[in-house]
Amino acid sequence: MGYFLRLFPAAVLLLSMGAVPFAHADSEIDGVGATFPMPIMQSWAEAYQSQKNIKVNYLGIGSAEGIKRITARTVDFAVTDIGLTQSELSQDDLMQFPLVAGGITPVIHLPGISSGQLRLTGSVLADIFLGKITYWDDVAIQNLNATISLPHLAITVIHRKDGSGTSFTFTGYLAKVSPEWDQRFGIGSSLQWPVGEAAAGNSGIAKTVAQTEGSIGYVEFRYAQKSKLTTINLINRDGNNVAPSLDTFMQAYKQAHWHKASYYQSLTDLPGANSWPIVAMSYVLIHATRNEREDALQTLHFLEWIYANGALAAQEASYIPITDEALIQAFAARWKQVKDEQGNAVLK
């Protein structure tokens, strides 16, 4: 796929590994992709099976691999935090819809520091991930945190080793707040990181940070909560000190405008007094044309169910669901354009 290879060449080796498809049954729907929304995908899958007696398999393998598998037509749907443009969707005969939004938060393992005590600016955060700030008591960090005692402890950066939409969003933020990061590394799902140790998935970063004193990483907020990790505050674009929460994520999400045909847009470093600056949108990808009519129908029914019934579970898991009725109706109109191999609409 041209889009992925063009923007993320460092991930080509990873994506060239063999993809083992699901063992498929008539009453199953197979999806893969981002680990960012995996907690809510699992929750929705369990509820859907309980209500509809149809099993939904969701494998969190990263956005990049999810894009690869939906393009290869080995799964029914994929979820990605790396939004595709309309030309890229058309190239691979795909449709894309925003699914849930959520916050990405830096997490630390620093003795004596609890969540909300430490605050950083975007530029200082970037300098840490650039390897320019190497100790926690560096003057740049101390100047932002005069009321707390910081240890002379080496910083260990933890980053993703897989092709990751979480990394795509995180590096997108760093590129906006740090000209040096933008020039040297830019935005990507898989990078040649300047410093640090690699871990697979949001869960891998959460586990590694929990085990590594002096470390800093970045995860979807739900993973920070479940692993009881220490979160930091960030100084947002308006110059305000904000903590990660569903409310501050929502302040950023409210500025979304879904006018593009692909629905893709960035939700990082947006203005707003209480906007959290690193918010990601997960998108669901489906085939615009399917040879397997029944599989396509089951997939569309699952999407209908999510947008009709999944909002409360998403909010309880600290995600922001799509609840705009006009937008959901626009999605439904697009679903009716999905066709089988004879050119007939799958949904009547």
From TrEMBL:
CDD domains: PBP2_PstS
Record SUPFAM superfamilies: Periplasmic binding protein-like II
UniProt entry keywords in alphabetical sequence: Phosphate transport, Signal, Transport
Single GO BP term: phosphate ion transmembrane transport
GO CC terms, sorted: ATP-binding cassette (ABC) transporter complex
Residues in PBP domain copies: 25-307
Annotated signal peptide: 1-25
An example Gene Ontology molecular-function term: phosphate ion binding
Keyword Transport: yes
NCBIfam families for the chain: 3a0107s03 (TIGR00975)
Family: Belongs to the PstS family.
Subunit and interaction comment: The complex is composed of two ATP-binding proteins (PstB), two transmembrane proteins (PstC and PstA) and a solute-binding protein (PstS).
Its biological purpose: Part of the ABC transporter complex PstSACB involved in phosphate import.
Protein name: Phosphate-binding protein PstS
Organism: Polynucleobacter sphagniphilus
